[in-house]
């Protein structure tokens, strides 16, 4: 019997080997076409009677509900004498309690039911996220409503977080990485709203009334976009949102200030007693939308954005061993003029050599351009990454909510595919000469 089994195994393996051609290298592996197309967002979009713009998708794969919301509010709206207010709003809206629930009780309720609700605020937007078991939908929505429309901003919590904030300010420049980022923004954006620093003085001037008035002004249904996916009946969930979110129109005075890059120096050096040099080289770019954006991000991917495969990483990191990390970023921003920068760190002794190599690579890129293979590869990378943005219904609705917040066309992602496919070597060489 054992001999028979061995013979059968050998026979099966032999037949398999005869009918399957094993490639000599993984690069020769072939796969069936994915036949994937960009999902549309319009079928998920509904503007509710209370003014709330929503993207809602039912998804019964797990007994969960996920919410992502955007409020048109950010630190750019901070008064000059109260810089840091948006940061306090973002922290205290969750941790400062509500009109009917103390902060400690709120923490207990959320912990007992494993409900996650968080807020974050940047220059030009406030994001909030919530996730919970579908059986706690009503409870979670009621708590989210309390935070969004009836926060308490308890004085004891304000004092606590101010003290934490002030302590962090004292150590803001202890580490070279954050110092580099602060110095770069302060240098590139001279005397603009996004280059201001919160201080002990500006924080001390912020009162509870300031926080409550700011919150009341911006946190309105008409000033939000909501993305929701999870285990629920869509029409029923819409009725819940109609009931829970107060009716309001869009806030009319939410135009962000014009922010332009205004560098006045060729270089800025911050001396610290350390053995490493942390470096950022940057130039002003543009505010989106801009016709050059796609060729610029493709060029950036080739030059320094593509991890270990980029020219900068190959030359400065792999070939010369002068740094562990070097990369470039072509920023994407719909609110202000962005920048294009290269960041790396190296020993103080090798700073000049590393910087010289970077300028040499820049000169080579401008003079000789990119190769046809680099263009083909980067287009393949961008197009193959796109499906991962839409893996789940929540991915779809949250992406299209952000798409609307940025004022883009409902067909933006479909147009993106067409725009990337059309990119040519000439397009990338043109922006290299134009900007670099």
What would you note in describing this structure?
- The chain is an alpha+beta fold.
- The protein is built from 16 helices and 9 strands.
- It has helices spanning about 1-20, 85-95, 105-110, 135-150, 155-170, 175-190, 200-205, 210-220, 235-245, 295-305, 310-320, 350-370, 370-385, 395-405, 410-420, 425-435; strands spanning about 45, 55-60, 65-70, 115-120, 125-135, 225-230, 275-285, 325-330, 340-345.
- A hairpin with a 4-residue loop joins β4 (about 115-120) and β5 (about 125-135).
- The longest helix has 18 residues, at about 1-20.
- The model is unreliable at about 5-15 (pLDDT under 50).
A few lines on this structure:
The chain has 436 residues and is an alpha+beta fold.
The profile of the biggest β sheet is: 6 strands, mixed
Indicate the overall shape: globular
Structural class: alpha+beta
Question: What helical percentage do the residues reach?
Answer: 40-55%
Give the percentage of residues in beta strands: 5-15%
Kindly provide the radius of gyration, computed on alpha-carbon positions and rounded to a whole number of angstroms.
26 Å
The total strand number stands at 9
| Straight-line distance between termini | 74 Å
Strand order of the largest sheet: 1-2-6-3-5-4
**Secondary-structure element string:** HEEEHHEEHHHHHEHEHHEEHHHHH
Q: Count the DSSP helices.
A: 16
Mean pLDDT: 92
Which residues sit in consecutive blocks of at least 5 with pLDDT less than 50?
A: 4-17
